[in-house]
Design goal:
Order of helices and strands of chain B: HEEEHEHHHHHHH
Oligomer: heterodimer
Largest interface: A-B, 47 and 48 residues
Number of strands of chain A: 11
Number of domains of chain A: 1
Strand content of chain A: 15-25%
Distance between the termini of chain A: 44 Å
Order of helices and strands of chain A: EHEEEEEHHHEEEHHHHEEHHH
Structural class of chain B: alpha/beta
Radius of gyration of chain B: 20 Å
Structural class of chain A: alpha/beta
């Protein structure tokens, strides 16, 4: 279904949804930085900057409680979280690189174990993607086969038009339902030209070639060369739209506490630290190798997909300037 | 923010680059060092990244530009496992980086004789390397550079002979912001930090980039027993940032790497500067100037303020 919506009507849609009790998550300024967060009003939405963290946290929060416990005498009471209580959500203004990562994550969260925390939020969320009009030289969506107009992962996709408003295309039943439930706010498509989209400079990388090199180079001097500078923080993984590792810890006292799930990162030394004291990834190059292998080989082996959408966030935040686009390009030329 | 942004003359950086290349080449040829930790250009226009070179041929990759933001001293402590251990290591240091090295020597983490220090006469670096192709101005310069008292590092083995051009007057951003926060009520100040710490995702970039965070196992990583909540939630975030600030008091010399690398823009160096200010007022002590200086928080003297004992 193809429609047109004005900026004003998009704001009305957001405010109507909020008023009806729907959680609307969109980029807004939060203590000085843009983040995808629940809006109180449409006026808070900012779409001219890439949020610092990706949209994955709408489904996979930075930290969430998965269970709580209470102990009294010999009695132990465990209380599960009921995913049915997760709110209906509309995710608005999602960058194509963030939206494209969502179906990539579906594969792992619905694989051998069905992660109800992720999947229930996913079922209850409608994703409204927004074509990207700003890129910098850290962006490389085009290198991994996506583009600023990529619609993958979006239920509804908005393209900003010359003269204002957005061309609006639905890609799923959820997207169509959003239009038909709010049909007064949408009109028939017009002939206005789209605003010029972002043009990332990165050339397409042959990911098959990258994978076939990785298949045979678990041990290679490349890893030492790249990762000797890695200081072992989790910034790259935490800002990544596709990284999805998490840790589970019990926090509280003997009497009462909560079991919490929070983001983890393969760059941390503790990530593979065994209870025995042994650490199979004892040095940083081995940890960094895992980052590349997981994104461009293991995830492909398992799910036939690449665990990177070229958003460039890790390139921007790396404290020591490690540039995954440059690394993958280098591998593709080997 | 200044009313008008003024350019900062960095023309000497080209001369410095040439000088460090030839010195690095000489050091390898004369077998004086086994490795040199420096900066090299990366893919993005104007970018620089830390590099560890081990032969004269690689000397040509070394650069110094306004994008050379890193304090390379971090590679001499905890990350050292991957760095050659036998023989002298050359390291490129700005004045602010040298303060960290001095502190690390004072804490017996490094020995002066194991290092070959290549000092950089520095006019300043960018506040952030997120957009490396940025001209250095009074607006884009790192806040630490606005209050710099070590443009010319002293006591190095080699310093390129260049004359630092006089720079423009700059406002003291940290002092001004600390004064603003000090003027708030405790409740307002708490609200400010609560909002800042709420952004923390526990990526520990601040810890990993800090030359002084060299604990083999960080208290905040412990789980048997758990000392600090590890999850990124208000309680654990606040605890972590308080632990970090307190542990750096009297040690941090203000390289501001923690603040630069925070992907959530938490103004971490404000905490460090506030601690430094307290140390100056209480003990007339400034970190990073004297090797073998024991910080006031690591020793007791009878002159110490004891008014808190009641």
């Amino acid at each position: 279904m193809q429609k047109y919506i004005t900026q004003q009507n998009l704001n009305t849609l957001i405010d109507t949804l909020i008023a009806s009790g729907t959680r609307v998550v969109a980029p807004r300024m939060s203590a000085g930085i843009p983040l995808y967060e629940p809006l109180d009003s449409s006026v808070e939405m900012v779409t001219d900057q890439l949020p610092r963290r990706s949209a994955k946290e709408a489904f996979f929060p930075v930290c969430e409680e998965i269970m709580s416990y209470e102990k009294e005498g010999q009695q132990i009471k465990l209380t599960d979280i009921d995913p049915a209580r997760f709110p209906e959500t509309v995710l608005v203004g999602v960058r194509p690189c963030d939206a494209a990562a969502i179906p990539v994550l579906d594969a792992v969260f619905s694989w051998d174990y069905k992660d109800e925390f992720f999947l229930e939020r996913r079922r209850k969320t409608t994703v409204i993607g927004l074509a990207c009009t700003t890129a910098d030289d850290a962006c490389f969506c085009t290198a991994v086969g996506l583009s600023p107009a990529e619609t993958r992962g979006s239920d509804l996709f908005l393209t900003p038009l010359n003269g204002g408003g957005f061309a609006c295309q639905s890609y799923s039943e959820k997207g169509e339902a959003l239009i038909s439930n709010n049909s007064a706010l949408f009109s028939e498509p017009n002939n206005a030209a789209p605003l010029p989209l972002a043009a990332p400079q990165a050339d397409k990388i042959d990911l098959k070639k990258v994978k076939s090199w990785l298949d045979g180079h678990f041990e290679d001097p490349l890893w030492d060369g790249i990762a000797v500078r890695c200081v072992g923080c989790g910034a790259c993984a935490f800002v990544c739209p596709a990284c999805h590792c998490f840790d589970i810890v019990d926090e509280g006292t003997e009497k009462a506490g909560k079991r919490r799930k929070s983001w983890d990162a393969c760059g941390f030394w503790k990530f593979t630290h065994h209870a025995s004291g042994h650490n199979p990834r004892d040095l940083q190059p081995k940890r960094y190798r895992n980052r590349i292998m997981h994104k461009f080989k293991y995830y492909d082996d398992k799910f036939g997909q690449t665990l990177c959408t070229g958003c460039g966030r890790c390139v921007r935040v790396c404290p020591v300037g490690i540039d995954i686009a440059a690394i993958v390009e280098e591998i593709s030329k080997k | 923010m200044p009313l008008t942004s003024q350019p900062i003359d960095t023309s000497i950086y080209a001369t410095i680059t040439a000088a460090i290349r030839s010195e690095a080449s000489r050091l390898f040829t004369a077998a004086e060092v086994v490795a040199i930790i420096g900066y090299a250009a990366a893919r993005r226009v104007g970018s620089a990244q830390p590099v560890i070179i081990t032969d004269a041929a690689a000397a040509e990759t070394l650069i110094f530009t306004e994008a050379c933001v890193n304090n390379l001293a971090v590679y001499l402590t905890k990350a050292k496992k991957e760095i050659p251990k036998k023989g002298k290591i050359g390291i490129i240091v700005k004045g602010c980086d040298l303060k960290a090295l001095v502190g690390l020597m004072g804490e017996s983490q490094l020995k002066r004789e194991d290092l070959y220090l290549i000092g950089i006469p520095c006019a300043g670096v960018l506040a952030s390397a997120v957009q490396p192709a940025t001209t250095l101005t009074t607006e884009t310069i790192a806040s630490k550079c606005c209050e710099c008292d070590v443009h010319l590092p002293l006591g190095c083995d080699f310093v390129p002979s260049v004359t630092l051009p006089p720079g423009p007057q700059m406002e003291s951003r940290y002092s001004e912001e600390i004064a603003r926060l000090e003027a708030l009520t405790p409740a307002e100040r708490w609200a400010y930090w609560k909002e800042q710490f709420a952004k923390c995702i526990k990526c520990y970039a601040c810890r990993q980039i800090c030359p002084f965070c060299f604990c083999e196992q960080c208290l905040c990583d412990r789980n048997k027993p758990q000392m600090v909540e590890t999850t990124p939630r208000p309680a654990g975030n606040t605890a972590w940032h308080i632990v970090r600030a307190m542990h750096l008091a009297g040690r941090c010399a203000g390289c501001a790497e923690c603040e630069r690398v925070c992907p959530m823009d938490i103004p971490l160096n404000l905490l460090n500067r506030k601690m430094a200010k307290e140390l100056k007022e209480l003990y007339d002590y400034e970190a990073g100037f004297e090797i073998n200086d024991k910080g006031p928080l690591t020793m007791f003297t009878e002159k110490d303020d004891q008014s808190f004992i009641k």
